[in-house]
Amino acid sequence: xxxxxxxxxxxxxxxxxxxxVVVEAMRCADPLTQGRHMREFERxxxxxxxxxxxxxxxxxxxxxxLEISAQLCRFRPGxxxxxxxxxxxASAYPYVKRGVRLVWADVDRRTRVVTAESIxxxxxxxxxxxxxxxxxxxxxxxxxxxxxxxxxGLILIExxxxxxxxxxAGKKSGSFGDxxxxxxxSHKNLTTLGEGGMLYVRDPxxxxxxxxxRHNGHCDYAFERPDxxxxxxxxxxxxxxxxxxxxxxxxxxxEVECALGAKxxxxxxxxxxxxxVRALYxxxxxxxxxxxxxxxxxxxxxxYHLLAARMTTGPDMRDRFIRAMAFEKGVKCVVQYxxxxxxxxxxxxxxxxxxxxxxDDFFDSMVSFPFQHWLSNEDLNYMLTATRExxxxxxxxxx
Length: 399
Ligand SMILES: *Cc1c(COP(=O)(O)O)cnc(C)c1O
Description:
Active site: 188 (proton acceptor)
Structural class: alpha/beta
Number of helices: 14
Protein name: SpsC-like aminotransferase putatively involved in cell wall biogenesis
Pfam families: DegT_DnrJ_EryC1
InterPro entries: DegT/StrS_aminotransferase (IPR000653), PyrdxlP-dep_Trfase (IPR015424), PyrdxlP-dep_Trfase_major (IPR015421), PyrdxlP-dep_Trfase_small (IPR015422)
Number of strands: 16
Distance between the termini: 27 Å
Oligomer: single chain
Largest sheet: 7 strands, mixed
CATH topology of the largest domain: Aspartate Aminotransferase, domain 2
Keywords: Aminotransferase, Pyridoxal phosphate, Transferase
Bound molecules: pyridoxal-5'-phosphate
CATH architecture of the largest domain: 3-Layer(aba) Sandwich
Strand content: 15-25%
């Protein structure tokens, strides 16, 4: 059967106003990178996050934000980093590259994100930093986790790639930690033409080196130049923190993307709210089916970037469900976030073992429904009816 509802690679459609902003930047922006649109996006984002101006930095994607955050941690041999195994690979490998040892934390069975308890269970005297991932768009218990990290003197990093706009205790995801990272990739609720990212750095001393780390180590000359063209147009030096040299990168995001990002901030709450209303509609309409266990959150704590459920009747029924949805109904559900310790990449690095039963259980029976913002009501209702029918027929087959 032909696919009726695909798991789209694109989260949102742009309004004519947003397209006009892009076209205007295409026509007029000079330079096309590192200009006023970048500064404007960073200013608007800091305002949206309710964090200090000058603490948010656009970068070319979430991964490059993680790369810089890993550099800023300045790990020493023997240092450990606590991070959930149930996440996307980009949450973890930038830290691996900096030589820190990963320690896997489990997620909560119901919320599918780490908790202060699951983090605490993974701490050792060598722990230097903690990465919390607000997976699926749900923000973890940040007040408790931040208190734990403060008490233990740990660097706290929030991977809010999927959770822009989600909030708890009146604060936005990505604003609780020492650093926060955001992704504006094609899949995310806010996307700047497919790639984009933001890095939040709380400490002004660390934030001061980010522009140079982001852009080739470029910096001002340390002296006045009587002839503006000499010795040359630009200077470079080694970004340093407390006397320690950090090697630069080029992770800049273009002006067109930045102009669009600033514009999209006006609509992100609406996008998130609309996704949540529809997620709750879908979840509530299936409340009679014990087989599908959703995470129902009726507040801005969840932006429903993804709509995921656990098949309580196990992996076998999960596979039969996805197969029937795809081949009898044309609805393409997927399975996401293999616990990282199961990938060859991490196994070969010595991270194959993890004690994460909740994350393992969830992953082995999980179903992720197509849930792009632009799904029509008709398609959502079709998917709902299809889900009911497939569950009923699987039920019948059981008996
Ligand atoms: C998307 C994502 C990233 C990486 O973002 P990119 O912009 O694709 O580099 C990191 N962590 C999580 C949890 C993500 O979902």
